[in-house]
Amino acid sequence: MLSTIDLQAQAVDEDGEVIYIPNFVTEEEESYLIRKINDTPHQSWKSLANRRLQIWGGLMTRKNVLLSQSLPPFVEVYPNVIDRLQLTGAFCTSTHGAPNHIIVNEYLPGQGIMPHQDGPAYHPVVATISLGSHTAFHYYKYRTGSPSQDATDVFSPGPQGEARIIDHTPVMSVLLEPRSVIITSGSMYTSHLHGIGNEIVDYFTAGSDDTDPPKFADFNVTVANWRLLGRKDMKEAVINGRFLQRSIRYSLTCRDVEKVANSALLKR
Ligand SMILES: O=C(O)CCC(=O)C(=O)O
Ligand SMILES: [Fe+2]
């Protein structure tokens, strides 16, 4: 059983705002979940420019109120992902004590997600389960000062819709293995951004010793969770400076929406 004590051992950063747990679901559960995701009717998918997604648990109003619907049995019964997330203790201070909303993203190799923040509708914790493929996941901070002359800046809208410049060197980068969960909270949720590049292959640079950890070659940043990796083949590729080819990845981003409409009142 996962307990809060285990969580500390799984922390990627010093403050424990990013927790990485490999093998959070078994291979059988992973295949079952991928089958269920693909069994859903075509119209359940929402196509975006660079990925497809499904929303489970209900839609949100413009005022960030969840018009709640039950989550599918393949996250509540078998495999019981919600209870398992609750047991980590990561949602112990959230309104409902557990996620009530899941966005499922599908990425083909070469697809990613621009640096962004998940926003204020949710309790500031997100648990992301990876299925099918690994990916490289980066955390970013905003940069102060004026835009650079070479027009390479990436902007993100701030709370008042103002453009804020994103520092394009990640503050932290992690390798998400298939079947793992990554839990982001604290300032990594509230004041940083996160994103996935649109690589087809992720290349690594070997470190020379313990004080020189392996890096993502394309970004020249440390694989911050390299010690916590659970798969022998992936850990070896990282440590020995080889590469990993992406395949289709599904992510289940599990969050607790704070405000939920009272469905009994809505039906009246
Ligand atoms: O796929 C992922 O790991 C991240 C997805 C994400 O950031 C989101 O859906 O907000
Ligand atoms: Fe996100």
Automatic annotation (TrEMBL):
<dbReference type="GO" id="GO:0005634">
    <property type="term" value="C:nucleus"/>
</dbReference>
<dbReference type="InterPro" id="IPR032862">
    <property type="entry name" value="ALKBH6"/>
</dbReference>
<keyword id="KW-0408">Iron</keyword>
<dbReference type="InterPro" id="IPR037151">
    <property type="entry name" value="AlkB-like_sf"/>
</dbReference>
<keyword id="KW-0560">Oxidoreductase</keyword>
<keyword id="KW-0479">Metal-binding</keyword>
<dbReference type="InterPro" id="IPR027450">
    <property type="entry name" value="AlkB-like"/>
</dbReference>
<dbReference type="Pfam" id="PF13532">
    <property type="entry name" value="2OG-FeII_Oxy_2"/>
</dbReference>
<dbReference type="GO" id="GO:0051213">
    <property type="term" value="F:dioxygenase activity"/>
</dbReference>
<keyword id="KW-0223">Dioxygenase</keyword>
<keyword id="KW-0539">Nucleus</keyword>
<dbReference type="InterPro" id="IPR005123">
    <property type="entry name" value="Oxoglu/Fe-dep_dioxygenase_dom"/>
</dbReference>
<feature type="domain" description="Fe2OG dioxygenase">
    <location>
        <begin position="98"/>
        <end position="258"/>
    </location>
</feature>
<comment type="similarity">
    <text>Belongs to the alkB family.</text>
</comment>
<dbReference type="GO" id="GO:0046872">
    <property type="term" value="F:metal ion binding"/>
</dbReference>
<protein>
    <recommendedName>
        <fullName>Fe2OG dioxygenase domain-containing protein</fullName>
    </recommendedName>
</protein>
